[in-house]
Specification:
Elements lengths: L2 H14 L5 E7 L6 H9 L6 E7 L6 H7 L6 E4 L5 H11 L4 E4 L4 E3 L4 H11 L5 E9 L7 E5 L21 E3 H7 L10 H12 L4 E12 L8 H17 L7 H8 L17
Parallel strand pairs: 1-2, 1-4, 2-3, 6-9
Antiparallel strand pairs: 4-8, 5-9, 6-7, 6-8
Length: 277
């Protein structure tokens, strides 16, 4: 083994012994074709102390058959009807025991096996941090190797949410205390409760965050927020209502700005295109 390979192995081992538990919550409903990729991407992380919680909404397509194959490697599995994705996330939050909590959707997977260790090390290096986040790439549902959209984030600055910005939620790792202190997902919002929550944390309660450049998560196109034009419209209206709810000064023009802010993502490419297999 070469010196560079040895260095990577020792670095991974060093990160894995850091005394910190990180909870990953995966919400799933009828995702028989993708849930195994999600679970495996968590299992393949080089950080050892991960609590993976899977909340299933009473799937009937064989999803639970796949989940049951991994029962011994999952910390918690719940399968029961719920009131939607954010209700399921709140169930996961109530069960989470990790100091840091992240979410990974049932059709997403981590870009490499060092994502969680990098997140953990960032929190260890800066005790004052409340949350970290990074970038994601959207890929074709039918051809996951095909890059469709690159959501490159940035360090938070005042005024970004008013422009429709938010950190990519599947990359948002936050101290569990923030949920205890500032609340969980608002169930009155069916599509943009993650926009509301990150705004509440970062703008209203001014938690300390750090942007970690680099692709953390690969996401298949066709999720709830973008699978039909009616949901795009409804989602942008919910985002507008979230701004008003949290005291941000916006006009209805905000909804147009939010849509337009995504356009560059379809033309931008990562500096280093990751293996998307």
């Amino acid at each position: 083994m070469g010196s560079s390979s040895q260095a990577r192995v020792f670095a991974g081992l060093a990160r894995s012994v850091v005394l910190m538990k990180i909870t990953i919550i995966t919400v799933v409903y009828n995702a028989v074709d993708t849930i195994e990729d999600t679970i495996q991407s968590v299992l393949q992380q080089d950080f050892q102390d991960i609590e993976h919680i899977v909340i299933d909404g009473a799937s009937h397509d064989g999803t639970m058959d796949i989940i049951n194959r991994y029962r011994k490697q999952l910390a918690v599995v719940v399968s029961e009807p719920d009131k939607g994705i954010y209700d399921a996330m709140n169930k996961g939050l109530a069960l989470a025991k990790g100091e840091i909590v992240g979410t990974l959707n049932s059709d997403d997977w981590y870009a490499n096996n060092e994502v969680i260790s990098r997140v953990a090390q960032t929190f260890i290096d800066n005790k004052q941090l409340d949350a970290v986040y990074g970038d994601i790439v959207f890929v074709s549902r039918e051809a996951p190797h095909k890059l469709v959209r690159y959501w490159q984030s940035q360090p938070y600055q005042k005024g970004l949410f008013e422009k429709g910005w938010m950190p990519p939620h599947p990359t948002f790792f936050v101290k569990k205390d923030c949920y205890s202190n500032f609340g969980d997902f608002d169930l009155d919002m069916k599509i943009q409760s993650d926009f509301d929550l990150t705004m509440r944390f970062m703008v209203v309660n001014k938690i300390k965050t750090q942007y970690l450049p680099g692709v953390m998560v690969k996401m298949r196109m066709g999720g709830v927020t973008n699978n039909r034009i009616s949901n795009v419209i409804k989602g942008n209206y919910e985002a507008y209502k979230a701004c008003k709810k949290n005291g941000l000064s916006v006009t209805p023009l905000f909804m147009v700005k939010k849509v337009l802010s995504r356009v560059p993502q379809f033309f931008r490419k990562p500096e280093k295109l990751l293996d998307l297999k």
